[in-house]
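Weekly modeling sync, notes
Attendees: S.R. (lead), two postdocs, one rotation student

Agenda item 3: backlog of single-chain predictions. S.R. asked that every request posted to the team notebook include the full sequence so nobody has to chase files. The rotation student volunteered to paste the first one in as an example of the format we agreed on. Action items at the bottom.

Example entry:
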Amino acid sequence: MLQLYAAKQDYRAQGRRFARHIYPLRLFGMMLFTLPYGSILIERQAPAGYWVVVILHVLIWPHVAFWLSRTAREPLQVERCNLIVDAVWGGFWIAVSSVSLVPAVAVLSVLSADRMAAGGWRLLWRALLAGGASFLLSWWWLGFQFELASSMRTTGCAVASWYIYILGLSHVTYQFARQVNRQNRELDRLQLTDVGVDLPNRRFFHAHATEQIAVARRSGASAVLLLIDVDYFKSINDRHGHGAGDDVLQQISGLLREQAGPGGFPARIGGDEFTLLLPVPLDEGEAAALRLREAAAALVLPRYPQLRIGLSIGVAQLSAHHRSLDDWMGAADRAMYQAKAAGR
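Predicted structure, as returned to the notebook:
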């Protein structure tokens, strides 16, 4: 039940975000296309009632549409209905202009592009049907007036409005695509990162280490794997609480990043187990392990000053008899347990 409620809330939040995205575009488009149709009304000395409709359409309708979608229980559905109403307005103005060709083409192209982007073919066809019905009814009411040609002023206003709107829409689309790309990159990072300590996770480590094995075998370069375990970590949690355990893991992660340098690859592979992959010979890997142990022993946690941290580290150089990453990790794991057996 709770999951269903959360899903509904998320759906409504998406609908409200969609309405916020459409609102400035609708307002911007209405104001722009007032230029060609206002030009037609001026040229034909239209009655004052038409200007009242212009005010309702341009200055009031966008805000009403936004309010309706923001306050609705199903904001996404309401906003899609608002988009169909926009098409109804478009059909009405095409009829009022006596089917003036250039403004009609500009409005139809913008309305169609927006509907297609917002709801695909289904929304587009519904909008076209509604707009077509509105046009036919309005055209009949106005006496089927037909005048394809438009003045240079009206044509210029229509073309300029169409160009500016498409440019604005392209900018919004570009910004949205950039946001999606950033979110995708962040999602990829989170999928490959242990967020608790901000280190690569086991999945990322396996992929990188497998690649490193292939590179080392092709080039003959050295590679060393350090498998690291925090001594008595369960006792730390039991005696000082999980907050202390989290602090210890974060401090160890910082030490691993320092020791990794530009060519190393630290990772957390689970619980209190870490790895550090270094492109160095065995003796340099052992020296790095000693530095890690000394740095950990010297750590003083501000909230737990009495706590001392020890590490057990297994070091294994990549060898020809390591047929896979599991073999290499197995060698490091055996070395680590030897370190534990020897007094941690």
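Discussion: group reviewed the output briefly. Residues 2-189 form one domain.
Action items: rotation student to repeat for the remaining queue; S.R. to check formatting next week.
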